[in-house]
Amino acid sequence: MKNLQLSTKEDYFSLFKRINTPLRQHYNGYSRIFFGTTGVGYGNRIAGMEGFSRMLWGAGPCIEQLGNDWLMEIKRGILAGTDPQSSDYWGDLHDRDQRMVEMPAIAFTLLHHNHYLWKQYTAKEQHQITTWLKQIFEHQCSDGNWQFFKILVYQVLKKLGVTVNTNDAKSAMEKIEHCYRKDGWYQDSARGRMDYYTPFAFQYYGILYSILVPDDPMSAVFKQRAKQFAKQYIHFFAEDGTNVPFGRSLTYRYAVVAFWAAMVYGDIWPEKINLMKGIINRNIRYWFDKPIFDSSNLLTLGYGYAQLSMTEPYNSPVSPYWANKIFLLLALPDDHKYWQVEEIPYPEVTHTKLLSAPNLLAIHDNGHTFFLNAGQPGPNYHALTNEKYFKFAYSSQFGFSIPRNNQLKEEAVMDSMLGIQTKDTTMVASRGGQNITEPGMFYTRNNVYDVTQSDNVIGSTWLINDAMNIRTWLTSIEGWQIRVHRLTLKCTSVVYETGFALENNPDNPGEIVSDLQESYFKGSAGFTGIVDLTPSKEQQVDATIQGFPNTNLITPEVVSLPGRLTTFTSGTHYLITGIYAHQDIAYASKKWLKKPVVDLQEHKVKISLDEAELYLNLK
Prior knowledge:
This protein has 14 helices and 24 strands. By secondary structure, it is α+β, with helices and mostly antiparallel strands. This is DUF2264 domain-containing protein.
């Protein structure tokens, strides 16, 4: 699928049908589409409505192109779902109802192509549909991106000539503004963080709003923010089309390029349309080269493959079809410039880019894009928050891993993390056929405060408990990842630190090498290594592990994870670590031969590599 043809409108339409046609075998009644056996926080009956509506994110924009059989199914499904007398009724809403999330796709389907579908309903049927949609104004919804659902439904209804007596949309816009931070970034509610919900939710919906009400002052604001954000968001991608997995809702996969589709639809940054087409197409090709469909050609829950353990409580089997948002492009006219231009390669970008709103430092190294992550303060309430938001680094090439448990290193698979264990918490593990008593239970970074930033250094403090306090600075030099930790400990502690995890398929095993200072692995998936750069050496031991299968987001295979183990007594200590990883083994091996040199002074660290120098202020 690396050669998937994506040039003309017909190409994209064919792709939409290829992805969504299998859904039509799973209608439950007229208004629900559902398959699978897994549960979801809002129940599978509402999930069936979700399956129907998420197909519409793509079907709505191409409603005129669809054959009569598709059209009749959609027309009948909306009518049955909004009919209180029907057994297929979608039901009455309540506060913070998942059905609110699904309403905009339905509303826009009625609107697209000059109200094409809307005009096919009688006046009585139109009243029935709008009566159901108006329920959204009678209930509270979450204070993050959900507020856009009220705003968009309100504006669509107005466009359809429906009278809506409510101040809810105005209030919702005020709440959206409370989420805005800077540089185009939104925080998803007071409890939320900055992640892919900025591009595929806030920014996407803001652009849709600007199309609905072009003369509204907020439309100009949304367009300006979108262009600002585009200059940040381009650093989430690599030259081959991959994006860096980070944060929650990663099962939506290629929805990450829905923002670029909306940019084209909204005629924002038109001078970069070739560039945006390249980003969209390469990302789609990347995903279609992954085993993300099952044997029935249905999208699976997971990321690089079917993997239930990384999902959220709000992910049902049909949730991945939210990625149909990319097919907003099909609403473009046949003669639109997008269908005429050729895609161009990923542009030359600065090797290091501070994304200051989400506290990320984006690094580009010979086709490898990775983030250094200071962390975002805030409460933890999503699944696997530590893994999705608080690792030190996230990679376009290697993804990240999630735990099966929090004791054995092999099941915790703590890539790009630092775990602390205390001597008084022990477990018995089998090592080399022997029963070994060793520390058990890891403490890892789960929140931060006192975040600092410069153009090439980010730092934050994380407090584990009264006995453990760690300040971490992160930077990069010549593609190397450098971590400086200042550990303030009140008890003897074992410190376990790791690099990136790489596939080590037992059918084609790689090579692990370690000594008193460094550990690295090289195999068919690339090279990954970790080295101690601390000038005053504490005794370290190799702690490379073979992580359990089905823990990494990119590969289902066993992974090799280079790690180092250091025991510190009570007091203040510095631990300085270098990480290097790349899919190109020859390139990485050459880089590994010449390591950064660190000079640790009282309040400053000097890092040198060839002619490059970096200074970190440790105050």
